[in-house]
């Protein structure tokens, strides 16, 4: 069957909305309550001692419950990898271009995806030490959105060996 290339193609937008109720569960609830207080919680695997951030009910590698007390983590770490985003998205209201980063918090063994602010595109690099910039306390909710972005600390870069397994 041949198609007439001169016919116009019409794009049809169909809005879709999905409403649902999320039940956070014990581990996620603990994390969300803590972030509402400005604290970042991870949880340790009892098999290999890795700290997962945010807290999880079980270790994804060993399939065992993460036992014991949550591990409080600082809001500082290093950039493991990054991407400069130049394509707009209706769901991300950031001015283009912006820098999406994966941050390895000090003491954690998993990365957090967030954005970098107060840095030029030319200056961002792997190993860069960063710190969270929080919303004003009166705006805090039970959301990772309490952290607006990460910014460079000016400290010396993290050694490559300290984050290479997270790339």
Description:
This protein has 167 residues and is mostly beta strands. The chain has 2 domains: 22-73, no CATH class; 74-167, no CATH class. Helix content is 7%, strand content 28%. The protein has one helix at residues 25-35; strands at 40-44, 51-52, 71-73, 76-85, 98-105, 111-116, 129-134, 147-152. The strands form 2 sheets. The chain has a 5-stranded antiparallel sheet with strand order 6-5-4-7-8, with no helix packed on it. The protein has a 3-stranded antiparallel sheet with strand order 2-1-3, with helices on one face. β1 and β2 form a beta hairpin. The longest helix has 11 residues, at 25-35. The protein is globular and about 65 Å long.
Comma- or semicolon-separated keywords:
2 domains, three-stranded antiparallel β-sheet, 8 strands, five-stranded antiparallel β-sheet, 167 residues, mainly beta
Topology diagram in text:
Blueprint: H1 25-35, E1 40-44, E2 51-52, E3 71-73, E4 76-85, E5 98-105, E6 111-116, E7 129-134, E8 147-152
Antiparallel strand pairs: 1-2, 1-3, 4-5, 4-7, 5-6, 7-8
How far is the N terminus from the C terminus?
48 Å
> What best-fitting shape do the alpha-carbon axes yield?
globular
Rg over CA atoms, rounded to whole Å, is: 20 Å
Q: Give the ordered list of helices and strands.
A: HEEEEEEEE
Sheet having the most strands: 5 strands, antiparallel
Brief digest:
The protein has 167 residues and is mainly beta.
């Amino acid at each position: 069957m041949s198609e007439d290339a001169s016919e116009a193609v019409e794009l049809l937008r169909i809005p879709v909305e999905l409403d649902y109720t999320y039940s956070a569960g014990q581990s996620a609830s603990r994390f969300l309550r803590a972030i509402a207080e400005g604290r970042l919680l991870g949880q340790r695997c009892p098999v290999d001692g890795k700290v997962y951030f945010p807290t999880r009910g079980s270790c994804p590698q060993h399939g065992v419950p993460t036992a014991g007390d949550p591990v409080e983590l600082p809001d500082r770490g290093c950039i493991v990898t990054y991407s400069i985003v130049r394509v707009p998205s209706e769901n991300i209201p950031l001015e283009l271009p912006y820098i999406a980063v994966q941050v390895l918090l000090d003491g954690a063994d998993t990365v957090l995806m967030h954005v970098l602010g107060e840095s030029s595109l030319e200056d961002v690099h792997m190993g860069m030490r960063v710190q969270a910039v929080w919303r004003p306390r009166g705006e805090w909710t039970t959301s990772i959105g309490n952290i607006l972005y990460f910014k460079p600390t000016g400290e010396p870069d993290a050694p490559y060996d300290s984050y290479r397994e997270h790339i």
